[in-house]
Amino acid sequence: MMQFRHTRENLDRFIPNRSAMDFDFAHYMLTEGRKGKENKKGVVSSLSKEAYLKLLAETFNMNHTHILAFKNKPPTPVELIPHQFYSSVHQSKPSKPLRHIPQTSEKTLDAPDIIDDYCLNLMDWGSSNVLALALENTVYLWDASNGSTSELVTVDDEDGPVTSVSWAADGQHIAIGLNSSSVQLWDSTAIDSEDFERWPPITCRFSRLEKPHPYNWGNGRTPARGCGLKWSASGQQLASGGNDNLLYIWDMSMASMHSRSQWLHKLEDHSAAVRALAWCPFQHNLLASGGGGSDCCIKFWDTHTGACLDSVDTGSQVCALLWNKNERELLSSHGSTQNQLTLWKYPSLVRIAELTGHTSRVLFMDQSPDGHTVATAAGDETLRFWNAFGAPEMKKDAPKAEQPRPFPHIRQIR
After folding, report:
1. What pTM did the predictor assign?
2. In angstroms, how far is CA 129 from the centroid of its own chain?
3. φ/ψ (deg, to 5) at 284
4. Is the dihedral of CA 380, 382, 383, 384 positive or negative?
5. Taking every pair of C-alpha atoms in the chain, what is the biggest distance, in angstroms?
6. Given pLDDT bands bounded at 50, 70 and 90, which one contains residue 218?
7. Cis peptide upstream of residue 342 (ω within 30 degrees of 0)
8. What does the pLDDT look like over 227-250, one tens digit per residue?
9. DSSP characters over 75-113
10. Using only C-alpha atoms, what is the Rg of the chain?
11. Which of 92, 135, 147, 318 is deepest in the core (most CB within 10 A)?
């Protein structure tokens, strides 16, 4: 007896294929469906009702009119990749939870007689977790570990006021710049010792330059004051900004007293004084700079080529900049009218948060050694501490190897 395979070629177009038919739907169309059509005669239905019935038919697959099927059902598509593997590959990574950024400061301290000058640098947070703050002729040290405050030095009126403070990398020695063009180097650990009164600080005095210099004089005719200085993390490059609206990039390889132009790049894109400078911690040749009141822009530079990579208009005077050590974020402090701190996402430059509380422009800003807390000081004579960057992620310690006990062959007696 000859056997026929069920293929497309040997199907008869006049004999229905029972395996491809929906008998429940066929029974409905032959009975209830016919009744519905008879009931509709002479009844004018609304457009909305007709649309509803059409949508209902499409939803329940009732829009086909054929009862008998003369073709096989289409074969089930073959999965090239098993479903379990496909779902595991395309499973989205768990999104990092958004951290809470408090809109107000955590702590506020008094900073009486702080000088509101755009060209001074009166605050620095050292690696030993001690914050130095200059108030007129006196430098104070605030220990963040226990909250204690001590006085480092008070200079004479003929040398003061203090114009800048900066910690050395060791967190022990601190340099103090004075209005008399002298710099003092102090050992902060000797404050409570007997040697503090016996040994004076190291003092260097610098004479004022008489010839034009790019950092001290703008075009040789108009005096220009230096507003910002910042070394890169490697110590290879130095960025300097002044109230002549210029930003210079200096490189140690070009430091030669015989060269007329010793800078690597002279950047002229800002239209106001350049005070705010910050080197990126995760990209060594990336520098952020901020302009004054008539500029209001934060610009990002490639210090190798001198190219401006991006710029954002903040809408107010940029006083200071600070990179987050743990995330790709930049914090900027501003002047009028809000005197706010603005947190930016980099490189999208989207505003994440704005922190307010100061009533005067926020000239001074620094962060703790762990990158958790941000300190700001302003002309409103307050020193504020903010949880702007969030707590850093704690690294899990590797499990310690179990120490072999003496005499392992002897059983322990409980």
Report:
1. 0.70
2. 22
3. -65, -25
4. negative
5. 124
6. very low
7. no
8. 999 999 999 999 999 999 999 999
9. PPPPPSS-HHHHHHHSPPPPPPPPPP--SS-SEEEE-TT
10. 37
11. 318
